[in-house]
Amino acid sequence: MSADLGRLLGEVSAVLLDFDGPVCSIFAGYPAPQVAAELVDVLRRCGVDVPSDLASEADPLEVLRRTGAAGDYGITRAIEDALCAAERRAVETAEPTPYGREAIVAARQAGMSVAAVSNNSAGAVTAYLAAHRLAGHVWPVVGRVYGEPTRMKPNPEPILRAVRAVSVPAERCVLVGDSLTDVEAARAAGIRSIGYANREPKIRALRAAGADVVITSMGELARSLVAFDSPDDSPEI
Question: Measured between alpha carbons, how far is 17 from 182 in angstroms, rounded to an integer?
Answer without folding.
Answer: 10
